[in-house]
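user: can you give me the structure for this one chain? tokens are fine.
assistant: on it. calling the predictor now.
[tool input]
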Amino acid sequence: HEAAQRLVTNGYNEIPSAESRGVLKILSSVLREPMVLLLICCASIYFVMGEMSDGVLLSFSVCIVLAITLYQEWKSEKAIEALRDLSSPRALVIRDARESRNAGREVVLGDILIISEGDRVPADCVLLSSQHLKVDESLLTGESFAVTKQPVGNGKAEQPSPVESQLFSGTLVVA
């Protein structure tokens, strides 16, 4: 119940998406392109000068360019939406003293995550317990080597730095 309440209060654990553009918005943005405006002006000049065949040919070319651009933009919007859906990994969460597998977007503040080798970290979190945990943070840092993580309160005299005890969303647990 508390997790559902936090989900309502804080929202989903995902990057807010931009509003999907419809065909008319895409068409409007394409028609404001300087090159398209120039071609439309040139076609208009051909019609005013009485060169109907040249005006029709240029207008037809502009229509083909518009159709291709609209199709490509629409496909790009769909691809980005699909990638966004794939970027939210599943999470093994302890809630109400039992484990449950939830969508990563449903992870809320206060959840305890169980992460093992091969998992994508579904949300930024603090490491409470681990055994020789190594995480690939190349997504964030560009470094190709895995980073060793230490839990907070690890029982050692020297506490780990905050970065050593944090896991970041989207990184990959390699060991």
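assistant: here you go. The helical segments are 2-10, 23-31, 34-49, 52-86, 138-141. The CA atoms of residues 2 and 127 lie 22 Å apart.
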